Amino acid sequence: MPESVRDRPTRSHEYVFLLTKSNRYFYDADGVRQPYRPATRLRLSQATFDSQSGGPKDYGSRRIVLLDEPS
Asked: Disordered: where is this region (predicted)?
């Protein structure tokens, strides 16, 4: 949930739960990594939340790609 605090650092991370039956699984950490640019900080806003439902926008297809092992 977005925070509107100005007197302390905010939480800017997400938890990712890897639910698998196998002891061996594949996770593509490079698929999540985004290059840092100084202008990125200026573009961050609460726009990641859907105004209709109040919940996060759908990023389901991105999650599937990150967990698929490359061929």
From this structure: 47-71
Taking the C-alpha atoms of 26, 31, 33 and 36 in order, what is their torsion angle to the nearest 10 degrees?
170
pLDDT digits (tens, 9 = 90+) for 3-36: 666 665 666 667 778 788 888 877 777 777 767 6
**What pTM does this model have?**
0.30
| Phi, psi dihedral angles at 49 (to 5 degrees) | -105, 135
* Residue of 68, 63, 71, 70 whose CA lies nearest to 32: 63
What's the first-to-final CA gap in the chain, in angstroms? 36
